[in-house]
Write a structure and sequence with these properties.
Layout lengths: L2 H15 L71
């Protein structure tokens, strides 16, 4: 997945969270996001099931209620990430 594609998904997800037109829940099931810069990203309630998040920067990310079942988080930076009710 390119950085541009990821940014578009995150923008639509932001709109979805705010009930704005054009919003869409982030569906990143099985996405290859190895080494992705998701610092401080708001991914609340996104679906990241079986995503490859190895070495991803998730520092300070909002991962409340995120589906991370089967996701590969080896080496991911989860410092200060909010994982409340995340499905691990």
């Amino acid at each position: 997945m390119t950085k541009e594609q990821l940014n578009e998904i995150l923008e639509k997800h932001k709109k979805w969270l705010n009930d704005e037109p054009g919003g869409e829940r982030a569906d990143l099931r099985g996405a290859v996001l190895r080494g992705a810069d998701l610092w401080g990203a708001d991914l609340r309630r996104a679906d990241l099931q079986k995503a490859d998040l190895r070495e991803a920067d998730l520092w300070g990310a909002n991962l409340r209620g995120v589906n991370l079942r089967g996701a590969d988080l080896r080496g991911a930076d989860l410092r200060e990430a909010d994982l409340w009710r995340a499905n691990l």
